[in-house]
Every structure is written in C-alpha cells, then in structure tokens.
Amino acid sequence: MANVSVKNIRKTYPNGTEAVMPCNFDIADGELVVLVGPSGCGKSTLLRMVAGLEDITDGELQIGDRVVNDLDPAERDIAMVFQNYALYPHMSVYKNMAYGLKNRGTSKEDIDHKVREASAMLNLDDYLDRRPSQLSGGQRQRVAMGRAIVRDPALFLFDEPLSNLDAKLRNQMRIEIRNLQRRLGVTAMYVTHDQVEAMTMADRIFVLNAGRIEQVGTPSEIYRTPASTFVASFMGAPPMNLLPATYNGNGSVHLNGETSLKVDAPKDHIGDIQLGIRPEEVKLATGKSATPFKLELIEELGASRLLHGKLAGHDFTVNAPNNDAPLADNLMLDIPSDALHMFDHETGKRL
Amino acid sequence: MTDTTSTTPRAKKRFRWSAVFDHSILILGSLFMLLPVFLALTTSSHDNVEIQREGLKFWFGSDIDENFGNAMFEKGGFTKTVTGMTMLMNSFILGIGFAIGKIILSMMAAYAIVYFRFRFATFAFWMIFTTILLPLEVRILPSYEVIQSIGLTNSYTGLIVPLLASATGTFFFRQFFLSVPEELVEAARIDGAGPVKFFIDILVPLSQTMIAAIFIIMFVYGWNQYLWPTLITTDEGLFTLVRGIRQIIQAYAEGSEIPEYGQAMALALIAMLPPVAIVIFFQSWFVKGLVESDK
C-alpha cells in the first residue's frame, strides 16, 4: 500500500509525438483514481508509464517512497489487469495466479496459501484446475484480478478491464472490482473510456484530452462544475448541451439575439460565450417566463425519455421524466439559472 | 410436434451421380499412387534371380521373410559390416537430429527477431528469408569444402549441422510469435519473467502445435536427404537407409553379381514406414499447428 506521486512526467515518442504532456499529480494511499478520456488521449500511455511498460521521457515517478523511473515492471511492486485479460493460455487458473509468485521465489506453501485465499475471495475455487479457454469472460476477468491480488502489490493498475465484457456483466464486475479494492485498501489507477465506469467507481477522476489532464476532481465535482467544454460534453450521458451565446454583463445571456436567460452570478466576461446546460436539469414548463423548445424526436429510455429538438435554432436535448403524456411539437422549458454553465468562446475554459 | 418433424430433409437427400463420379476419381487416384508401393511389396517377396529374369512381380512369392530378414540383419555393403538396422539407426539420428536442431535454431532466431528491438532486425529477417533462394543443392560445393576443411566428414555432426539453418522454420515461428498478443508479453514482464523465462515458460508451451508441425516436416525432409549424406559420408557405418538402397542396386552397375532386388525393395518399404507413421500419429497436431494458433 502506498501513495503515488508524479512530478512533471511526460512522454514523447521518437517521431516527436507528445503522447503525454508534462503533468503532476498525487494519489493518496488506498485511493481509486480513474483516468478517463477518448481514445488516443494518452490515458493508457500514462498508465503504462506507471507500470513500467513504456519509458518515461522526462519527470519523476514515485510509488511509495521509491523513485521507480528506472525499475523493471516486476520490481515496481505493482499489478496490472489488462483489457483482454492476458492470461497464459497453457496454464491452469492456479498456475496463472502462481506464476508471478514463483518467479519471485516465494515458497510453495506461501504460494498455495495466497492463491487459495484469492480464489476464495473471487469465487474461483471450483475452477483452479481449468484452463482460461474453459472459462467465461467474467471468470477470466476474475482470474486476472486474482493474479493481481496474490502479488499483494502497492498499486493496482487497470487498463480498460471491463471493455471485453457484455453490458450486464460489466455492471456486476464494476461493483466487484470496487468492493475488492476497498476491502484490500490498495491504491489503484483505472483507465477507461466509459464515463459511466469513471463516475461510478472513482474516488477521483482525471479527465484527459490530447495528452493533457483537463480536470481532476471527485465525480460530483466533475459533473457539477466541468472545467471546460470538453469535460462538459464528455462526462454525462446524454452529454451537456452546448450553445453559442452572448453575455451582456448585466446578468442575462442571449441566445440568437432574441431568447435570453437569467444568470445567477454575474461574470466579468462580456461578449461571445458558450453556454452549457445539462439535459436533466431542464424541466418542462408552461409559464410565460419559460423558453420555447421545438420538439423533433423522442427517445424512450423507460424511466425517462430524451426529447431532441431545437432551442433558439440550436440542437438541444432534454431529459424528461417519463409520464407517458403525449407531447406537443412546441414545448416550453424551464431552465433554472443555476443550471447554466458558461465557457469561454475560444478556449472552452469555464468562466 | 409428431411425425412431421422426424422426416427431416436429410432423409429426402437424393442419390447423386456426381458423388459417385467424384469418388471414383479419388479412388482411382489413390490406387494409382498406391500401386508402386504394392509392387514393391510383392516384388520383395521373390528371390533375386527370379526378379532379374522376369522383372517386377504382381503377386506375392515365397521369399518375403527371407528378403526382409536379410535386408535388416545381414551384414552387407562393401565392407560387410553394415546391417539394415545400422542404417535405420543412422536415418533416425539424421531425421530426429535434423528436425530438433532446426526447431531449436529457427525458434531462437525468430524469438530474437520478433521480441528484441535491435538495429537491423528487419534486415536480419530478410537476410534469413532470402536464404530460401539458396537451398543446399546450390551451395553444396562450398558447404562440402567447409565441412571437409574442418574435418567433419564421416561424422554425425557433419551430416546434420550444415543442414540446420532454416529460413522456412524461422519464418513459420516468426509469424506465430507475431500472433501472440502483446499483452501476454507485458503480463509476463510484470510477473517478473525475464527473456529466458518468458521463452521457456510461455512461448515454448504456446508453440507446441507449431513445433509438432515443423517437426514432422523437418523429420521427413531430413529422413529423405540423399545428396548431402552421399557427399559427406564414405564410412559405411554412417550410411542412411535411403543411401543404402542405392548401394544395393549399385552392385548391378558394377556387374559382378546379381543385384539384391528383393532386399532393395524391402529396404525401400522399411524406409517408407517411419515418415508415414509420424505423419499418421501427428496428423491432428500437424493440421492444428499450421491452421490455427492455439490461443
């Protein structure tokens, strides 16, 4: 168990591509940090640098109180779970879990003890003699987890461990992994491109974009106060509506010159802005102060439904509770002033 | 849910003349291929004088056990010291040594090319690959010269080693290694397996079927070597079966005695057996190794 400390770490490939821009962060002991971002944003590269599978171009990486930049993966006291499990196909479940310990020179009794303990924890007792090819996807994922657990590492690394599972199993494994990590109290870094996984599992989320960390925060911080339009549109499903608007400085925002919305806290940025509104923070309304919305398409989600349409000429989505009421084409929306997020027109940064 | 389901389309499947035609062609083809083997078997059951006088025999005679016995156990050859058993042994040594040596060498070469990023790795691979254009027959004189100058003629080493370097084997293993997922290598690195451990603990067991397939090909290839053993061995104690058959027939060319046709046929049949047996026993592995990667 240990904390991780990253100082100015960066990765540049020989051809000049900057995969990971210089970044700094600390991960506390026992914390689960999720790195999330679209593919190619550098999240996997960052994880692999921590694992020791990619060289660190510059900067310093500390796991526990050791600087591990130049240590082999095996010496870093980490364990990694891969997307496609990476189990040794010719070894039984038992041997798969024992292999790392065997290489470390652990005694036979210790190996046996640890493997049995892990397999009991993961409900794999009946499968110890099977080959990975005889297991289901979820079981394989558990074996991969077991292989990580028996090493008793200071740090768990997960590289999109659930992407190969079907949706139902993914939900189940998500909870299992989270529980296990809590119970063992091991620090963990978890890479995913799935924002639901990030929101549900993380103590803290790192949102990455184009090799840079865009925002660091707890799931609710990321959701409530996204630092940029990128974070706003990436986190949350359906994504936040982003509309071009102008702000006149006196507490109201104009969409398309005509529709205007009230803003709570006046900002000193006057002129063009990007306005963000979460689909679920908007309500259907009837009052005169409401904003007109032209409905074009309804998506039924069961508990709620998504209304797609136009607000002041721009694409807009509303997440409305499903009460089976028929809807007219022209609706009125109640947009509360605290639901408005304002972003810089050019940089996309939060104002 | 009664009788209607039991009359499946299978029962209605009609007799097709094209199937008969296809099968007769196949049967004819295999008979055509098997006939020489059958002739060798029938001919080997007659005595030499009769074969010399009447040519190939189409039915069994009475001397089959005598011919096979002599072929295997009678001391023959110029020096009268070599039995068929010695030659069989030599053939096995050549075949197995050749196959195993080739597998070890080409596997290690492929391992280096695929897993170690050194300068000119691709270049090295293509160098190895182009040696396919230079089979033993093309470079036989220089090879002989080298072996002769380091004094390896008339030895098993001289017989086997010059044949070992193999582009085909290296190529097959390279393709196989490339199909092994990258994550497996990384998982092994995290598990603390160094290059040697990874090779022995992970790669070799994974390549089992591939090894079996290449073993069969190379064993048969080594077993059937003729030109190289002829050049490199003059000591009859090192003769292989394939070589020995010729030796028996050669007596005819020298004209002093009637060649031992019956024994030659018997030896030819015996020389055929091990490759056939190996192919039959390893057939399923063979196909698996070449067709699928066991992941």
TrEMBL record, chain A:
NCBIfam families tied to this protein: PRK11650.1
Keyword match Membrane: yes
Gene3D superfamilies in alphabetical order: 2.40.50.100, Nucleic acid-binding proteins, P-loop containing nucleotide triphosphate hydrolases
Name listed for the protein in its UniProt record: sn-glycerol-3-phosphate ABC transporter ATP-binding protein UgpC
SUPFAM superfamilies assigned to the protein according to its UniProt record, in alphabetical order: MOP-like (SSF50331), P-loop containing nucleoside triphosphate hydrolases (SSF52540)
Organism of provenance: Paramylibacter kogurei
Gene Ontology biological-process annotations: carbohydrate transport; glycerol-3-phosphate transmembrane transport; glycerophosphodiester transmembrane transport
Sample GO molecular function, one term: ATP binding
Signal peptide positions on this chain: none
Xref: SMART domains: AAA
InterPro entries assigned: AAA+_ATPase, ABC_transporter-like_ATP-bd, ABC_transporter-like_CS, ABC_transpr_MalK-like, ABC_transpr_MalK/UgpC-like, Mo/tungstate-bd_C_term_dom, NA-bd_OB-fold, OB_MalK-like
TrEMBL record, chain B:
GO biological process, one term: transmembrane transport
Protein name: sn-glycerol-3-phosphate transport system permease protein UgpE
Residues spanning the membrane: 20-41, 92-113, 120-136, 156-177, 198-221, 264-287
Organism in which the protein naturally occurs: Paramylibacter kogurei
Gene from which the chain derives: ugpE
Lineage summary: Bacteria, Pseudomonadati, Pseudomonadota, Alphaproteobacteria, Rhodobacterales
Membrane topology category: Multi-pass membrane protein
Domain of life (superkingdom): Bacteria
Task performed by this protein: Part of the ABC transporter complex UgpBAEC involved in sn-glycerol-3-phosphate (G3P) import. Probably responsible for the translocation of the substrate across the membrane.
Keyword annotations: Cell inner membrane, Cell membrane, Membrane, Transmembrane, Transmembrane helix, Transport
